[in-house]
Amino acid sequence: MRSRPVRFITFEGAEGAGKSTQIRRLEARLLALGQPVLTVREPGGTPLGERLRQLLKEASPGWTICPESELFLFLASRAQVVRQAIGPALRENLWVLSDRFSDSTLAYQGGGRGFAQPLLRSLNEMACAGLAPGLTFVLDISAPEGAARIARRGPESAKEDRIESEPREFFERVRSVYRELARLEPDRVRIVDAERSPEEVAAEIWEIVSHVFGL
Predict the structure, then answer these.
(1) Which long-range contacts (CB under 8 A, 24 or more apart) does 31-39 make?
(2) In DSSP terms, which residues pair with 86 in a beta bridge?
(3) Residue 65 pLDDT more than 80?
(4) Using CA atoms, how far apart are residues 110 and 146, in angstroms rounded to an integer?
(5) What are the structural domains of the chain?
(6) 115-130: burial string, b at 16+ Cβ within 10 Å, e else
(7) Parallel, antiparallel, or unpaired: how do β-strands 135-140 and 189-193 relate?
(8) 203 annotated ligand binder
(9) Is 16 marked as binding a ligand?
(10) Which of 67, 68, 77, 184 is deepest in the core (most CB within 10 A)?
(11) 34 is in an annotated binding site
(12) 70 annotated ligand-binding residue
């Protein structure tokens, strides 16, 4: 009999896909069932991770981060959140919902920056201490639609983001890797069309979660 996957769900996808919205909706559904939930984000989720998030997202004149430094800063944030937040929460039988995790490194530093996938998988293994999500949603969105959604955000989100400012070709490579991950791991990685309404996306996500975890 197949064992039930760990109650660790990650949300992936390019900028503008609506990950934060869908995490809030799923969190609300679980809480309504009386299920304890921890929500984290990457980079972030811990005091160290939030400091690293500021460094990684900053876009200002004269501020540069080489691809190798970017990779290790993301890994440092992940190592910290696994040991300080995600691991303890799972041991206490909480649900953990994460806005990005190890697949982001494969997509962004692999597809986007061109680092070799075997190297990234090895580094992820160390950073994650062997921890893998039980279920991953890739909110699939085209690069033009993602850019359009970012442009429509309110003034509070208008500050330039270093990664959001990458060219369209970068995000097309990122999307390609996510789709390949879903092909390689269909039981864990589920592609969800994020160009539909938030309500339609949330309904599909809940249907999958209910089925996978027997809710």
Answers:
(1) 33/215, 35/95, 36/92, 36/93, 36/94, 36/95, 37/94, 37/95, 37/96, 37/97, 38/85, 38/86, 38/89, 38/94, 38/95, 38/96, 38/97, 39/96, 39/97, 39/98, 39/99
(2) none
(3) yes
(4) 20
(5) 8-213 (3.40.50.300)
(6) beeeebeebbeebbee
(7) parallel
(8) no
(9) yes
(10) 77
(11) no
(12) no
154 marked ligand binding residue:
no
Residue 24, classified by CB atoms within 10 Å of its CB into exposed (0-12), middle (13-18) or buried (19+), is middle
Greater confidence, 159 or 7? Answer: 7
For residue 4, give the amino acid letter.
R
Q: How far is CA 12 from CA 60, 62, 138, 141, in A?
A: 26, 30, 5, 11
Torsion of CA 138, 199, 40, 186, to 10 degrees: -30
Q: State the residue for tokens 């929460």.
A: 89
pLDDT for the residue numbered 2? 44
pLDDT at residue number 154: 62
Q: Model confidence over 116-142: pLDDT tens digits?
A: 999 999 999 999 999 999 999 999 998
Q: Is 112 labelled as part of a ligand binding site?
A: no
Consult the annotation and say whether 17 binds a ligand. yes
pTM of the model: 0.92
Q: Judge whether 30 and 120 are in contact, CB under 8 Å.
A: no
pLDDT tens readout for residues 189-198 = 999 999 999 9
